[in-house]
Amino acid sequence: MAKIIIIDDEPAMVEVIVTLCRDKGHQVFPFNSAPKAIEQLDAIAPQVVIADIKMETMTGFDVLRHIREHHRQTAVILITAYASVETAVEAMKMGAYDYVTKPFKIDELQMTVQRALDYQAALRENVYLRKELKNRYRFENIIGTSRKMQLVYNLINKVADTDSTVLIQGESGTGKELVARGLHFNSNRQHHPFVAINCSALPENLLESELFGHKKGAFTGAVADKRGLFEEANLGTIFLDEVNSMAPPLQTKLLRVLQEREVRRVGDNKSVPVNVRVVGATNEVLQGKMKDGSFREDLYYRLAVIPVEIPPLRERLEDVPLLVNHFLQKQASASGGEPKKIDPKAVDILCHYDYPGNVRELENAIERACALCEEDMILPTDLPPQIVAAAAGEKAEQAIAAMPVGQSLDEFIQQQERGYIDATLNHCGGSREKAASMLGISMATLYRKVEPKSKK
């Protein structure tokens, strides 16, 4: 059911339209005066306004103009007894959803109203989805408080709303595409397409056709003209992931696009201008490839106007607890339940691993743990075995490194024994009797072992 305002200075016509709309279950607000209807717009907040063009005090065009200025989400359908091409063109130019000519058929008006409601629903959904996308790719969702990540945040915040070409460098799994999407959805291009392609996923001839398009008959299988991704991304952003894998001939064509801001489809002799921001990503250092000639130096400097280095997770392990919490929240949102809890020992284990797969590996580990854990508590046993084993090995190495090498064996054993006795006494609240019982030794032995310290 929708709220619909009907404005016409002919009471009989208003009554007809009211009946047609109520038959479809809509809530209808009839007016014979346009100014009175305008006064009630804020209070009623209609989805659709149906107004006659020819009225004495205020025309349908006046109503349309007011609604376009103050209630942009409301669809306006104009009714006219004077159908002409000029009237239709003027109505559509001013922002009317549609217009209906008197006398109209019953189903014609009802179908026009339904199309207007469907259009409004699609608009609202589009606004919602865009808002969700922007929220999803806010820079705040790139998690980390480490100094290295703060430097990344500061840089991408500065360059997001520019048209400068960006080259994101980082190992696989560090979140390069997340940064690319963040750059797009926080720029003035956010309402235009974001197009991503992995340059290593296609062979050279197919990648060229994907990026630049082709003309019909350009090669076997080219049965129709095809727009390339650069054209699809016009006014928006194109993300070239793993651009380091691009073959030299394609590098030359990409360089030309960056220089000339135009693309030429495969098999075509004409160029098409494009207005696209290019964001590239590489998972390897390109300086080495430039030295051996497998990556063009001039293309590198065209791409790396703004170089962004994403640190591997092993260089910012202090961010692991934050990332763990983020992924627990993400899993809860996906399943529609409450976030799982995690044992501090499990968090400690996660903080002592090198993560060759970076943030992606950590996210997979948390997803696995959420699936395996019982009673909504993630324990060390729920973590991937290789992470647990690596963390245990690192702790053992740290313990060995902390050994007081240079002491005699008797001194070391005495020191360890005394530390354990002190810990037991502390656990027993200082009661030597309870401590001796827990340690399985006599009171005399306990006194003898602690006495040397008290005499010093």
Task: Give me the CATH architecture of the largest domain, please.
Answer: 3-Layer(aba) Sandwich
Strand segment count: 16
Indicate the mean pLDDT. 86
Relative helix content: 40-55%
Structural class, judged by helices and strands? alpha/beta
Distance between the termini: 89 Å
CATH first level of the largest domain: which class? Alpha Beta
Structural Rg: 35 Å
CATH fold-level name of the largest domain: Rossmann fold
Shape: flat
> What spatial order of strands do you see in the largest sheet?
2-1-3-4-5
Mind summarizing the main beta sheet?
Answer: 5 strands, parallel
How many distinct folded domains? Answer: 4
Low-pLDDT parts are none
User: CATH H-level name of the largest domain... which superfamily?
Assistant: P-loop containing nucleotide triphosphate hydrolases
Strand content: 5-15%
Count the DSSP helices.
20
What does this structure look like?
α14 packs across α16, α18 packs across α19 and α19 packs across α20. A hairpin with an 8-residue loop joins β11 and β12. The chain has a five-stranded parallel β-sheet with strand order 2-1-3-4-5, with helices on both faces. The chain has 456 residues and is α/β, with parallel strands linked by helices. It has four domains: 129 residues, 3-Layer(aba) Sandwich (Rossmann fold); 172 residues, P-loop containing nucleotide triphosphate hydrolases (Rossmann fold); 87 residues, Orthogonal Bundle (Helicase, Ruva Protein, domain 3); 47 residues, Arc Repressor Mutant, subunit A (Orthogonal Bundle). The mean pLDDT is 86.
